[in-house]
Amino acid sequence: MSAQAFWDTAAPLIAVTEKHPFLVAMVDGTLDMEAFRYYVVQDALYLNDFADSLRRLGSNKGIEKSDSERLESFAKGAEEAELSLHNSFFVQWDISAEGTEQMPNSLLYTSYTKRIVATCCHAEGLAVLLPCYWVYMHVGKCMLQLREELGDSVRMNALRYGSD
């Protein structure tokens, strides 16, 4: 089965995700600030686990050194680029993710990715992590498109979520 076939099979779920009220409200500026803060904290916890999964995958036996280095680079990207955005919010709001519990859906997902990366073959580890990139990029593009449709009335900056 091709990646496109998987994407096509997931199309109904992706369509719902594209129009999710949380994402639309984030772009159009109507999202409650407490909901956005909650999201940023939970996303920071998720990104820490995602970076850990990338590092674990990069340390699998038998993979090329260049692949290992690339996965380490992706892990650093999650920590440095993405988390620096989150940390700027933490400073602005005078809050921290430290001591915060990861909510069940995120915890179930990241626990699953960590288990697959740690116990299955390298290809399965890649397969469990790749959809994160694909959906993140797709949703980011949808948010940018919505922002363009809404024009200058938007107060939340969706650019960060649609960048490379």
Tell me about this structure:
This protein is an all-alpha fold and 164 residues long. Helices cover 75% and strands 0% of the residues. It has helices at 3-9, 11-18, 21-28, 33-58, 65-93, 104-119, 122-150.
Main β-sheet description? none
- Helical residues, percent: over 70%
Strand coverage percent: under 5%
Radius of gyration: 17 Å
Quick overview:
With 164 residues, the protein is mainly alpha-helical. The chain has helices at residues 3-9, 11-18, 21-28, 33-58, 65-93, 104-119, 122-150.
Keywords for this entry:
single chain, 164 residues, mainly alpha, 75% helix, disordered C terminus
Q: What layout of secondary structure does this protein have?
A:
Elements: H1 3-9, H2 11-18, H3 21-28, H4 33-58, H5 65-93, H6 104-119, H7 122-150
